[in-house]
Amino acid sequence: MAHREAILPPGADPLNLWGNAREGSDVPTELQPRRKPQPQRTHEDARIALDCVSRAYTDDRGAEVHALHDVSLRARAGELLAVVGPSGCGKSTLLELICGLQAPDGGSVACAPAVLMPQRDLLLPWLSALDNAALALRIAGLSRAQARDRAHALFAELGLEGFERARPHQLSGGMRQRVAFLRTLLAGKPVLCLDEPFGALDALTRAGMQQWLARTLAQDRSEIGQRTVVLVTHDVEEAVLLADRVAVLSARPGRVLAELDVAIRRPRSRTDPQVVELREHALRALGMDERR
Questions:
Q1: Is residue 290 part of a domain?
Q2: Minimal CA–CA distance to 33: which of 48, 45, 44, 18?
C-alpha cells in the first residue's frame, strides 16, 4: 500500500473505488477533489449515450493500440445492458469511458453519475467485510457508525449475515464479490458498471451468483430510482440470462456488431429455447456459431 501511495498523485483514485467518477458524492473528499460539474446531456430517455466513440492508447512498446472504433450505444434508466466480445476488444475501456476515468479520442459520451466495480474485488485486507462494504460511505463523509449501520442493513439481504467481522481472506470468492458489489451499490450512483464480476469464480459459484445478481437488481429500489447497469462479460449465456439488451462487440478495435433485445420473462433458465436461440444469435454475430 505504501508503494501505491508513493506513485499516485494526491487525490488519485484510478479505479474509482470510492465511486466519485462522473460527478460523484456531494461531499468533497481528500482522495479526489471534485472538479467543476459539467452539464451532461443525454439523448431522449437515455441515462447513457455514446455517439461514434473511438479510443486508442500507446502500449509499453510505444505502439498505438486502437481499442474502440465508432461505438454508439444507449442505455435507459432501469435497463441492464450487457456487453460481450472477445478478449482485448475494449470492453473494460468502454466502462472506464462511461465512468469518466478516460476520455474518448473521438465522439462523445454523456452519462448520469456512474460507479465502476472492477474485475478484481480489491477488498482491503486489514478491514472487515462490513468496513469494506461501507468504504464509499466513509469517503463520502459519513461517520464510521453511520456507514456501518447503512451497510449492515443490507448484509442479510445479500446473504452476508454473520460475516460482518470477517476479513477478506476468511470469505469465499462469491462472498468477496458480494461485498465488492455492496460497496459499489452503496456509492449511490444511478449507473453501475460491472466489469466481469464473476469471471474468476468456478462454474457452480458463478451460476449461483448470476441468480443472486438478477434477484438483487430486480429488488433494488433507491432514492435515485431503479439503476441502470452495464455488465461486461465474456460469457454470452450469462449476458442473455441477465440482460434486457446485449451489445456484441467485434475483435479489436471494438465496434458494435449487433444489439439483441432480450424480451424473455424472468427468472430465466439456461435450457429455455428462447435463451438458447439468443445465445446462438450472439455467437453467430461473433463468428462462433456452435452448430458449425
A1: no
A2: 18
Select the more confidently predicted residue: 174 or 95. Answer: 95
For residue 150, being part of any structural domain is answered with yes
Pairing of strands 191-195, 80-84: unpaired
Instruction: Match 434477484 to its residue by C-alpha cell.
Output: 215
DSSP string for residues in 216-280: HHHH---TT-SPEEEEEES-HHHHHHH-SEEEEE-SSSB-EEEEEE---PSS--TT-HHHHHHHH
> For position 109, which CATH number holds?
3.40.50.300
Q: Tally the C-alpha atoms within 13 A of residue 226's C-alpha that lie toward its C-beta.
A: 10
This model's pTM is above 0.85: no
Mean pLDDT, the chain, integer: 82
**Total of domains in the chain:** 1
- Residue partners of 145: CB distance under 8 A and separation at least 6: none
Examine residue 231 and state whether it is found in any structural domain, yes or no: yes
Long-range Cβ contacts of 148-152 (<8 Å, 24+ apart): 150/186, 151/182, 151/186
Instruction: Name the one residue in this structure whose C-alpha cell is 436461440.
Output: 277
Residues in the chain: 292
Between 267 and 19, the more confident residue is 267
What average pLDDT score do residues 225-252 get?
Answer: 91
CB-based burial label for 88 (10 Å; 0-12, 13-18, 19+): middle
Specify if 291 maps to a domain.
no
Give the span between the Cα atoms of 83 and 209, in whole angstroms.
18
Q: For residue 75, what are the contacts with CB-CB under 8 A and spacing of at least 6?
A: 46, 47, 48, 81, 191, 228, 230, 245
Expressed as residue numbers, the domain containing 113 is: 2-285
